[in-house]
Amino acid sequence: MKRVNIFTAIVLGAFLTFTGFQCSSTELTSAKLYIQQKNWDKAVEALSKEVAKNPKSDEGFYLLGTVYAEKEEMDKMIDSYDKSLAVSKKYEKEIKGAKKYHWANFFNRGVAFFNRAAQQTNPDSATVMNNKSTYAFDQAIKLEPDSLDSYRNLAYVYMNMQRYDDAIPNFMKLIEKQKSPDAYKYVGQIYYNKGVAERTKFEESKVAADSLSALNYFNKAITILEEGKKVLPNDSEVLLYLSNSYIAANKVDVAIDAFKAGVEAEPTNKFYRYNYGVLLLGDNQFEAAELQFKKAVELDPAYQNAIYNLAVTYVKWGAKIAKDYEIANKGNKDAKEETQSKEKYKAALPYLESYVQKKTDDAQIWELLGKVYTVMGMPNDASNAFKKADVIRKGQ
Q1: Cα(first)–Cα(last) distance of the chain, in Å?
Q2: How far, in Å, CA of 394 to CA of 396, rounded?
Q3: How far is CA 226 from CA 231, 276, 379, in A?
Q4: Lower CB density within 10 Å: C or N end of the chain?
């Protein structure tokens, strides 16, 4: 998961208004004195008596909400303010101002704690700061439920804490309210990764429920990413996770048809070309996959993912030629089969060599390159590639 950017605080002036001493009940008079003294518990006690005796006391509920805000009991604050407004609109302006003020206060605290968490070197200290950040953004959401920045930042804090289930409903609020591009990507990615985790679990447990759980997550990913694709038709991450989710959910035919339609509609879209090629490669349609990856590289000669997968297409193609011939001829080989297989490995070489120059620290790629060199009868190059892979692994 990507780490999100450091948040920026919102500046808002304080808005706190208390009603002066006017003709009022004994309880209200006492409460106002306690408020001036900042004796919040006594103020709550006096105001609770006031609203119990006079359920229509708009001022009593207003002041009670204000005192609860000082005690940082925001649920009670909101409830008291709502009851004041239900009686009359007399304190509506003050209540709106107070909510806005406290929203900004909690929002800024959430930002500050998140930034402090990002600076911690001790994981436990970072967790403490992040928990304080989530608390603050939760309070901000209660105060201003329509403020999407609060949902967004809370989702990002949960992402950094790897509390993905908690992040999802906040991202979904962004999708519901503004079709946020990032929200589609994050939710799709979360569901896909959870599906992969459940699939891995099933491979070890062989329990059918784990397999069904994986499929459920992949289908959830498909649903949200298909919707996201309408908003972000050219986003490489959305398209990549969508194609991977189709494959994982055993919907390769559906995926191929969908991306084929995308290529036909936008033939110069390298992302559609690439993802269509990935699907075709996964379905062992090597010739068709080769065409799509080549087109993607023609559109963008620096498109490293397409370069790599074009090389992989040739490697898998060559391996399949050799295997199919061996099976058909009961393990026998002949020169023609070997030549056809080697032609594919030879075609892979320049793309692998190009890719490895850009991504020099990937042991798996060096090892693949070593295997291709071996097939091509290039022992020295193969040895150097395998040594490079070993060095990288030892350094990790």
Answers
A1: 20
A2: 6
A3: 9, 15, 47
A4: C
Quickly state the pLDDT bin for 23 (edges 50, 70, 90): low
CA-wise closest residue to 221 among 200, 201, 264, 251: 251
- Name the region of 163 (left: φ>0; alpha: ψ -120 to 50; beta: rest): beta
Distance (Å, rounded) from C-alpha 171 to C-alpha 4? Answer: 14
| Token pair recorded at residue 322 | 């050799």
Q: Judge whether 183 and 175 are in contact, CB under 8 Å.
A: yes
More confident residue, 6 or 395: 395
Angle at 359 between CA 355 and CA 363, to 5 degrees: 100
* DSSP assignment string, 226-252: HHHHHH-TT-HHHHHHHHHHHHHTT-H
Tens digits of per-residue pLDDT, 206-226?
999 999 999 999 999 999 999
| CA–CA distance, 348 with 200 (Å, rounded to integer) | 30
Domains of the chain plus CATH, in order, are 26-90 (1.25.40.10), 265-355 (1.25.40.10), 360-396 (no CATH)
DSSP code of 319?
H
DSSP 89: S
Contacts of 25 (CB under 8 A, 6+ apart): 50, 53, 54, 57
- Give me the pLDDT at residue 326, please: 77
Q: How many residues does the chain have?
A: 396
| Residue 360 per-residue DSSP state | T
pLDDT of residue 332: 63
What beta strand segments (E) does the chain contain? none
What are the DSSP calls for 1-65, one per residue? -PPPPPP---------------S--HHHHHHHHHHHTT-HHHHHHHHHHHHHH-TT-HHHHHHHH
Helix (H, G, I), strand (E, B) or coil at 75: helix
The predicted-structure confidence for 159-198, as pLDDT tens digits, reads as follows: 999 999 999 999 999 999 999 989 999 999 999 999 999 9
- Give the model confidence (pLDDT) of 242-273 as tens digits: 988 998 999 989 889 988 988 998 899 999 89
- Torsion angle, CA of 246/252/255/256, rounded to 10 degrees? 150
Q: Can you tell me whether residue 179 is helix, strand or coil?
A: coil
- What pTM value is reported for the model? 0.76
